[in-house]
Design goal:
single chain; 13% helix; 9 strands; alpha+beta; 3-methyladenine DNA Glycosylase, Chain A; 4 helices; 9-stranded antiparallel β-sheet; disordered N terminus; 215 residues; globular; DNA-binding
DNA sequence: CACAAGATTCTCT
DNA sequence: GAGAATCTTGTGA
């Protein structure tokens, strides 16, 4: 973390990381680095909040009941791709999980800015640092992630990828129901780093449960 | 072709 | 905390 280069971010997580149980992947993505390189420079942040959307028995999932449209086609493709779509005019980014034709994803809801904070602030209209990436739409704007990334391979280190970040080991994590997914208030499929200030909703009408530490 | 629906965010009270 | 803005996509006439 002290090299002054981006070498520590250059090893993308491999496809096998994503080809597993989406709940496990959602938990294990906490603490990892989301990295974005453009001609303007390098931006990266630690993932502090994620949500799993399941191919099976999950009415909150875009692919519920095998529903397949142009928008969600990427969900049915290979793991280790980005599923980017719009909600209320804002881009949101997920990682595609599990093998082809199994349409599970993990939504990245918040990151903690680490590198390229000035560039992120520029893209976000110079809001305070604490608001740069606290929310799925905000972090996409901060990292200049858009629909052009739908289907992008995030295992190659080309422009947009996710890398390991050993510093996060031992950090406490909690779970809760997902945010703004009214269909399934009972499913605790949201995971976040306990007490991290960049988590989008630390308080809410839902229960949060301590669920362990990062391995 | 019209229209409703969001895995959101911002701007007020 | 409530309400509006936002804009693409999916669906049904």
């Amino acid at each position: 973390m002290t090299t002054g280069t981006d070498l520590e971010f250059t090893d993308p997580l491999p496809l096998e990381f994503y080809n597993r149980d989406p709940v496990v992947v959602a938990r294990e993505l906490l603490g990892k680095m989301l990295v974005r390189r453009t001609r303007q420079g390098l931006c990266a942040g630690r993932i502090v909040e994620s949500e799993a959307y399941l191919a099976q028995n999950d009415p909150g999932c875009h692919a519920y009941g095998g529903r397949r449209t142009n928008r969600n086609a990427t969900m049915f493709g290979q793991p280790g791709r980005a599923y980017v779509y719009l909600c209320h005019g804002k881009a949101l980014i997920c990682a595609v999980i599990e093998p082809e034709d199994t349409a599970s994803v993990v939504l990245i809801r918040a990151i903690e800015p680490i590198t390229g904070i000035e560039l992120m602030a520029e893209r976000r209209g110079n809001v305070p640092t604490c608001d740069l990436t606290r929310g799925p739409g905000k972090l996409c704007q901060a990292l200049a992630i858009g629909l052009q990334h739908d289907g992008h391979d995030i295992t190659k280190g080309t422009g947009l990828w996710i890398a390991d970040h050993p510093d996060s080991k031992g950090v406490a994590i909690s779970k809760s129901p997902r945010i703004n997914v009214w269909a399934t208030p009972d499913l605790e499929l949201r995971f976040f780093i306990t007490g991290n200030p960049y988590v989008s909703k630390s308080r809410g009408p839902f229960q949060t449960t301590f669920t362990g530490v990062i391995a």
